[in-house]
Design goal:
The protein is α+β, with helices and mostly antiparallel strands. The protein has two domains: 99 residues, Aminotransferase class 4, branched-chain amino acid transferase, N-terminal domain (D-amino Acid Aminotransferase, Chain A, domain 1, 2-Layer Sandwich), CATH 3.30.470; 147 residues, D-amino Acid Aminotransferase, Chain A, domain 2 (Alpha-Beta Barrel). Helices cover 27% and strands 29% of the residues. Strands 7, 8, 9, 10, 11, 12, 13 and 14 form an eight-stranded mixed sheet that branches. The two termini are 20 Å apart. 36% of the residues are buried.
């Protein structure tokens, strides 16, 4: 596995990431006013770049932010040409100041399974479904969960409706049925989760926390995690081996990755 070179393009100028400069003032940095995407690179090939760019445009439209997609795509491919087949991540950022950032990043190291703790969270309705740079609340939810001894948060509304983890989608099994929260409730429309939903029988809806706490099996889906089994929620242990629905989801996502070979 090749190591991902850490490079950043700012408006088409590529430098090592630790030399990249963002001119100020820019409300993307000063106020978190902007949008972003993070996608996986498999041997230098981006997974579902079209889907990520479409979601970036949708997020930008929701906050009245213009995106120059033609130049952004050209800058993406210019950076990819310098990565030369490495595995890793590609981060896309568009700021209110009109800056376009494309950065290559290494993959984070995730444990084979993960523990969750519920954190009460009230969504900002005006940003529902928007992948904006205003991620401080999500990051703090993770810190709150870790203070309890868990590895990640599970966001739950004050009335007890399950949402998502701060950077991933939760799937769980209830009555033998695979379930996840409907994006219509304001959670992010995950590219990875969509690959699973398109290939498996998944029930979408608004579900109470008790439904999740009664599950026999759960997993997270995200760009960096792919499919990661959940081994406990609020201290309740969950089986991870065998975990047939989790294994089926991993197989479904592997099938989705087959398109990269085309």
């Amino acid at each position: 596995m090749a190591t991902t070179p850490l490079l950043t393009s700012v408006d088409g100028i590529i430098t090592p990431s630790d030399h990249a400069v963002l001119p100020l003032p820019d409300d993307g940095l000063l106020r978190g006013d902007g949008v972003f995407e993070v996608l996986r690179l498999y041997e230098g090939k981006p997974f579902d770049l079209t889907g990520h760019l479409a979601r970036l445009e949708k997020s930008a439209a929701a906050i009245a932010l213009e995106i120059d997609r033609v130049h952004l795509e050209a800058e993406i491919y210019a950076l990819l040409a310098k990565i030369e087949g490495a595995d890793g991540l590609l981060r896309l950022v568009v700021t209110r100041g009109g800056r376009r950032l494309v950065s290559s990043e290494p993959l984070p190291v995730h444990t084979p399974t993960i523990s969750l703790a519920t954190v009460t969270y009230t969504p900002t309705v005006i940003l529902n479904g928007v992948k904006s740079l205003s991620y401080a609340a999500n990051m703090h939810a993770t810190r709150i969960a870790r203070e309890t001894g868990a590895q990640e948060a599970l966001l739950v509304t004050p009335d007890g409706t399950v949402l998502e983890a701060p950077t991933s989608t939760l799937f769980w099994v209830s009555g033998g049925k695979l379930r996840t929260t409907d994006p219509a409730l304001g959670v992010l429309q995950s590219i990875t989760a969509a690959a699973v939903i398109d290939r498996l029988d998944v029930e979408l809806g608004g579900f109470p926390l008790d439904d999740v706490l009664g599950t026999s099996e759960a997993f997270l889906a995200s760009t960096t995690r792919e499919i990661q089994p959940v081994d406990s929620i609020d201290g309740k242990k969950l089986p991870t081996d065998p975990a047939p629905h989790t294994e089926a989801a991993a197989a479904a996502f592997k099938e989705a990755l087959g398109s990269l070979a085309d």
